[in-house]
Amino acid sequence: MYKWRRVSAAGLLTLIIVFELSAFSLLAFRNSTLDYSALAFGAILVAMLLFQYISLTAIFRHLDRYLLIIANLLVAMGLIIQYRIEAAIAFRQIIWFGIGMLAMVVCILFMRRPNIFRRLNLLILLGCIGLLFALLLVGSEVYGARNWITIGGQNFQPSEFVKVGTVFVLAHWLTNSRDLRGIWPLLFYVFAVVALLVVERDLGAAVLIAGTALIVFYVATGSKSLTLLGLAAGSAGALASYYIFDHVRVRVAIWKNPWATYSGKGYQIAQGLMAIASGGLWGMGLTRGSPKLIPAYHTDYIFAVICEEFGVIMGVCIIAFYLVFIVRGALVALNAPDRFMMLTAFGCTVLITLQSFIIIAGVIKLIPLTGITLPFVSYGGSSIIASMMLLGILEGVAIQGGETLERALKEMAK
């Protein structure tokens, strides 16, 4: 069974490489003159993916290969689209991807000593709140949200790393206790983080963290009554935000009828819908679309660009990859060696998949659009590094679970 899985995973990686090389070959010949930088970029990306896969699977035998391959496929798709739109963006993103790979390995190694995160949990809790509070004082506003810090000319989004910290905060307190009296610091943390994010107009991150906390709480406690109470409190908070904050009312109004303000604030949503519709089932073809008609084409709306050029069928495949990610992440959590690591793995899985479906649902107008990125796919240094860190945490738990099971089987054999 292990040998079959190994060959299957390697086969999927081969398909990714063939797809990458084909896409960048097409990009290289899209103009009258050969674009050698496209060929070089494709070769660099393939080398990075091969080196990552071969080295990690050689060092960590119990690594979940499918999680790694799905993440790499999504990254590869994002880089194809970004290079097709603007080569300079793609070159910056591949550098961030390399940094993210290093961050992933660091997280894998740290998960070999998960008690570190438990001992430092109060520091993580206060650090996340303090970081978001500092944004109110020194943060800069980008696309209407005051959630960015500029360092050395580069914009960083601290809320991406607060998501990673939230996973450990949730897992720690829900491992220690399953009733409200024992988890009051966790309740304070979630309320403070969500409130700060709403004030900073980072509505996507607020919804994501609140939703993740509620789902992980239900899985950890099994309490339907308390979960429904939390859902009611969240709904009441969302309703209050609608009446208190102008920007929330604007988002809802645009969602209800973007065509009424097509020449203004509704332009992005309407243009994204038209891009998806123009792509049809099979797409217009790589380089044949008009992605720059959508304002946030390389970040929030990259899913619409994919559908325009590769078709709705590729959009469905992207959603399917995230669904497979859910299944693999859930299996990693079920096979975790202890409760803390189980909740940590489950929290990472919920964060990545919930973020994916929130932004995809916003792009196709199922829910009001919130400004978050599509994990592994969208452009952004903070986003890709945080996503790779979550992947590293998941892989660390998978490795620990595999090693624990292997030791148990050896003991039984004796």
What tags apply to this protein structure?
414 residues, mainly alpha, globular
If strands are numbered along the chain, what order do they take across the biggest sheet?
1-2-3
Query: How much strand content do the residues show?
Result: under 5%
Radius of gyration: 21 Å
Share of helix, binned: over 70%
Chart the SSEs and their pairings.
Blueprint: H1 2-28, H2 36-59, H3 65-85, H4 87-110, H5 115-119, H6 121-138, E1 140-142, E2 145-151, E3 154-156, H7 158-176, H8 184-199, H9 203-221, H10 224-244, H11 246-256, H12 267-279, H13 302-310, H14 312-334, H15 339-363, H16 381-413
Antiparallel strand pairs: 1-2, 2-3
What does this structure look like?
This protein is mainly α and 414 residues long. It has one domain (2-113, 137-158, 243-413). 74% of the residues lie in helices and 3% in strands. The protein contains 16 helices and three strands. The chain has a three-stranded antiparallel β-sheet with strand order 1-2-3. Strand 2 (145-151) and strand 3 form a beta hairpin. Helix 6 (121-138) packs antiparallel against helix 7, helix 7 (158-176) packs across helix 15 and helix 7 runs parallel beside helix 16 (381-413). The radius of gyration is 21 Å and the shape is globular.
